[in-house]
Request: fold
Amino acid sequence: MKTLLPEPYKIKMIEPIRLVPAVERKARLKEAGWNTFLLNSRDVYIDLLTDSGTNAMSDMQWAALMVGDEAYAGSRSFERLEAAIRDVYGFKHVVPTHQGRGAEHLLSKSWIKPGQYVAGNMYFTTTRAHIELAGGIFEDVIVDEAHDPRAEAPFKGNVDLGKLERFLDRVGPQKVAYVAIGCPVNMAGGQPVSLENMTATAALCRRRGVRVVMDGARAVENAAMIRAREAAWKGRPVAEILKEMCRQVDAMAVSAKKDAYVNIGGFLATDDDGLCESAQNLCVLFEGLHTYGGLAGRDLEALAVGVREMVQDEWIEHRLAQVAYLGERLDAEGVPVVKPFGGHAVFVDARAFLPHLESDDLPAQALAAWIYEACGVRAMERGVVSAGRDDRGRNRRPSLELVRLTLPRRVYTQTHLDYVAREIGALHRRRAELPGLRFVKEPKHLRFFQARFEPVPARVGAA
Reply:
């Protein structure tokens, strides 16, 4: 196991955390309906639910808050954000939004007509929800290796060019709103896309007259994995790789609450004048004026600083090293994890962890609950519950049933990660006694946020 280098920062502020007693954790879990999203943060010891808005800002970001221009229109803070995005990503236009799903909404409303398709390298929950709310139909064109948690392929997020070509032949390019490339692919375990594959996908789409969009929430992490794994870009600056990725696409929707360290914010970026005009107009309806998009001037300032900080190689290299360290520790404990490790989280294979549970027992949702009960660590389900139901009301059954242990940026230390690995390893050793869950309350949209569950009684004859 590699030694984790010290954090490239020192701590200037702390937030106390407390491990509540086991009996209290059990009670809190029941009150939350065995859904980790419904736990109160005060009852969580180490919070690995998400890296969205949970990151620690730098001293320069905190300082930037104080110079926020809170003018309703034409804020100087927007000018600084616009300049940062042009410099770092290379896009001409930027429309701020309150967070990433705001940008997804503007994009979907602007470019999807009812009955059109959006092809992508595996779905993401909010992305597919916005596609379907706009009347679109999602088509998965990811490589087959993405569905195998043990496959060691370096770029399991790649678009399968053969699948994409056959799909375009079948439906016709005019029926495709755009091709969406997630970089990296969250639902596959944070697996990256190679720049070679992005370039080939973009070339194919240009030949067929189809636009290409990137989900850029964690594009810097994808760029860092390209730097580490793709021979042609080995050791090149992350900033250079990121800009080359952006050259391949017509637009990018970004949740800035990930790469850019901020606690709130997102944006849509593009060189397309028509998309910019449409998004600005819709922004006024759903977010705020197109120069602030639902954000305060101080938030725009912190985001502008974060966009420049996020491409500093030492920051992103340490982040990937932290994720790999946790993954290696879990692997050493015998916990089944998705390999290779991604850039933002370690994904536990819930089916392999709980082989005695059937799909209808919601093994990933159950495992996330039992991890919290065992050690106070909050994780997130990424499986049947997240996948939702199809248009016939049937549960979608994704090939992967995962629990995501997501590392907020610049928040936890090696000691925290050692605790997580040790305690989940101990839980794994008594896995046979862990029951499944079933729904008792199921919202219509994005049910994993608000659903409630209860334990499933042991099946007769079960081991």
Observations:
- The CA atoms of residues 33 and 452 lie 4 Å apart.
- The longest strand covers residues 176-182.
